[in-house]
Amino acid sequence: MTNMETHLPDRLMPRHDVSGVELPIDWDTAGKRRLLGRTKPVPALIREISLLGALVDAPLPPCREVGDRVEIRLRGRSGLVEIRHARPAYTEGRALYGVMFVDTRNLDADIHEIVGYIRGQAADADLAWERATHTH
Q: Which residues pair with 59 in a beta bridge?
């Protein structure tokens, strides 16, 4: 894989880990075409997300590089992301792509809802930890 360890400047906003939340997407939906011009979805997972971008765990091939724009589908809606950095994933045959949302007007409501939900989970966990460890 060429340029797998390259990246553009660090992310613009902190991302939120989505551990415990299954967040599947279709990756590179404009890529490989099948019979009758339909695309074959490539299943991928969002591992971290912010309002401006995400960390995507996607299979290889197709191999994508920094600067490539990739069409994704989340909850049945399409959007466009740009790869800002890439590295091999912990699982063989997969890559981790740091992406910036480029044209996600169809996805904005979903992204805001997901980030809000994850932020709420983190706040609930912090409050529970504070209550559990608070001594009188």
A: 94
